[in-house]
Write a structure and sequence with these properties.
Blueprint: H1 2-26, H2 31-34, E1 39-43, H3 45-49, E2 59-63
Antiparallel strand pairs: 1-2
């Protein structure tokens, strides 16, 4: 069960990274900045703390939007 959760998190992280890259590209982020555009999935709650492995997989998406930082 734990391995299934770790695999799910890994797959979600990969999907998020690809999605952020795609969105950044479509918003015309300069190519030199595309490699810095990224995101991740973070776990929290009892699962994130490692207290209860039988709990739901509480997670959220985190990414930084670089549009205003590009000159």
């Amino acid at each position: 069960e734990e391995m299934k959760r770790r695999n799910a998190i890994h797959k979600l992280k990969k999907i998020v990274r690809e999605w952020v890259q795609t969105v950044s590209y479509h918003h015309a982020l300069p190519e030199r900045y595309l490699r810095f555009a990224s995101g991740t999935i973070l776990t929290y709650g009892s699962y994130g703390l490692g207290v209860s492995l039988n709990s739901l997989l509480d997670s959220f998406l985190y990414f930084v939007w670089l549009e205003n930082a590009v000159v």
